[in-house]
Every structure is written in C-alpha cells, then in structure tokens.
Design goal:
Blueprint (H helix, E strand, L loop, with lengths): L29 H8 L30 H21 L9 H13 L16 E5 L6 E4 L3 E5 H6 L4 H16 L2 H13 L2 H7 L5 H12 L6 H17 L6 H15 L3 H5 L4 H20 L16
Parallel strand pairs: 1-3
Antiparallel strand pairs: 2-3
C-alpha cells in the first residue's frame, strides 16, 4: 500500500488540535459567564438537552460577541494558506491516497450527525485533508475545515474507531464554537473596543480577519472545552456506527507514545487519567446509540509498514 512521504513538520499548525485535558486556569467558568451574560434568547437555536446521549449543557453566551460568519471566513483563509504551504512541500495527500479515502469516508458518516449540535454546520463547506508530517496531530477549524497529520495515523496505528474518536473530538471544537468563545472572552475581559468596532464594520475589517486567522493557530482550549469535545465526540462516533470504547484505547495510545518520545500534540495539550475516567463514565450514555447505529460497510486500517 502506498504511504505518504514523511516531511519536515509544518510550523504553521493549529495549536488547538487535540487538546488540553487539564487547564492551568482551574475549574471551568462557563456557567458563571452564562449567568452574567443572560443569553437564554441567544441559545434558542441550539438543540434541547433532555435527550439520549451525552449532556454538556448550553454553549457559552460569550461566543455571541463575535459574528460566526467572520470567524469562519478567517478560518477558511488560514486553512487555505496552510494547504498552500503544504502543497509547496508536496505534503498534501492526493484524493486517491488510501488514508485520504479513509478519512473522507469516516467524515462522511459523521457529518450528518453534527447538524443537531450546530445548525450552521448544514451550510459549512466541510473539507478533510491529510498532511504529510510526522506530527501526532489533527484539528478542525471553524466552518468544518479538518486536517489530519500522517503521523497520528502511522505512529499510533489508529483503528477506524479511534480515527472517528479523534475526528468527532476535533469537529466538536468547531460545532461548539470554542474558538469563537475564546475570542469573545478576550473581547469581554480586555474591553477590546477597537476590535469590536472592526468586527461590526466600523474599522479595518480586513486587518481584523487576518488577526483572527492568526489567533486560530494559537488558541489553547481549557478544561471545560476539552471535556465537551471528548464527550460530544464520543456521541458523534457512536451515532456514526463507530465503537465509542475506542476513546479509551486512543488515549492509552497517546499516553504510551508520550513516554517513548515527545509528542507534538501532547506538548501543549497533555492527556491524563482523568480524561479516560470521564470517557468510561459516559460510555453507558452512548452504548445504546452505537448498538442501534448502522455499522460502516467499508473498513480501512492504519498505514501499512514501509516495504509491506
């Protein structure tokens, strides 16, 4: 089976990728922000939470401070720039590459289940690409722009179920608008009047979009965001017919990889026993969904060993 060429890791990568389970900021403060913002009316478009599956509460009202269209446009531009840079290094997987086919097959199964979590997802131009880098990394930018690095598939030998867990997790960051929320927090806490004016067309909007794109590469999510991404990703995978128990083996593999050598993803987004414990505790909420879900008609596998 052909494999992607190994390339020097790209420097312009999304730090949010796969995520910090234990933030240095302490306990989640989302509920406090919601109380302060009083955003009940703003959340009416989101799904009801008395439902089968995981329960992560209502999304943060602070995301409403930044227009979704603007941040999605910024993400689209940054994603295109990243792909251009990768293409110049001949490090973008072609459409017929086995691992590209695999990623797009899995994403096609998951995407229909994202709409409940964010109505805007129906209108997103979802993209899934494979970058030829040794990094153990993956991300989904606002607007459904997904990238997997060859290293996460090859070095961790991910099963399809584990790939679905990674993908569901990363999709959740976009669906729950965690980047938009972080920018909203910045505006609220810093009183960014000039930035706010630019967002609403009163200043240099073009410069702001470039600034937003840069922020999307450096955002670091907190504990609450990471917990949401784990749990919603668990449900998305289960509804798509992928075994949610793979969430446990995925993080076990992450922990093992970090012992043998530094893992790019874990250098900024460490894992830990708490993450696996939370996944175990929530498995009963999604096991019925998985049991009833149609299972994938096609199964793939990790990249073949070189020379095999």
């Amino acid at each position: 089976m052909p494999t992607m060429p190994e390339r020097t890791p790209l420097h312009a990568v999304a730090r949010c990728a796969f995520c910090d389970a234990m933030s240095a900021t302490g306990m989640p403060d989302r509920r406090a922000f919601l109380r302060l913002a009083g955003a009940g009316a703003a959340l009416t478009a989101w799904p009801a939470w008395a439902r089968e599956g995981v329960d992560v509460g209502a999304p943060s009202a602070l995301s409403q401070l930044v227009p979704a269209e603007q941040i999605e446009r910024a993400a689209t531009g940054q994603y295109a720039s990243m792909l251009t840079q990768a293409a110049q290094q001949r490090a973008v997987g072609p459409a017929d590459h086995p691992q590209v086919r695999r990623l797009r097959y899995i994403s096609d199964r998951i995407i229909p289940f994202t709409y409940e979590w964010n109505p805007r997802a129906r209108g997103w131009r979802w993209e899934v690409n494979l970058i030829g880098s040794k990094q153990i990394n993956a991300f989904c930018m606002p607007g459904g722009k997904i990238a997997f690095y060859y290293g996460i598939l090859d070095r961790l030998k991910l099963s399809d179920d584990e790939v679905a867990m990674v993908m569901g997790h990363e999709m959740t960051h976009a669906l729950r608008e965690h980047a938009r929320e972080q920018m909203g927090k910045t505006m609220a806490t810093r009183g960014a009047i000039e930035i706010g004016a630019a967002i609403f067309g009163l200043g240099n909007g073009g410069r702001l979009l470039a600034d937003m794109g840069g922020q999307l590469l450096t955002l670091k999510f907190g504990r609450a965001d990471e917990s949401e991404a784990d749990l919603v990703g668990l449900e998305l995978a289960a509804r798509s017919g992928y075994d949610p128990r793979a969430g446990i083996t995925l993080w076990e593999k992450m922990a093992a990889a970090s012992k043998n050598a530094p893992v790019e993803l874990l250098s900024t987004h460490p894992s830990g026993p708490t993450r696996i414990s939370d996944i175990r505790a929530n498995l009963p909420k999604v096991e019925g969904l998985y049991a009833r879900a149609p299972k994938p008609a096609e199964r793939f596998g990790p990249p073949a060993p070189r020379g095999g």
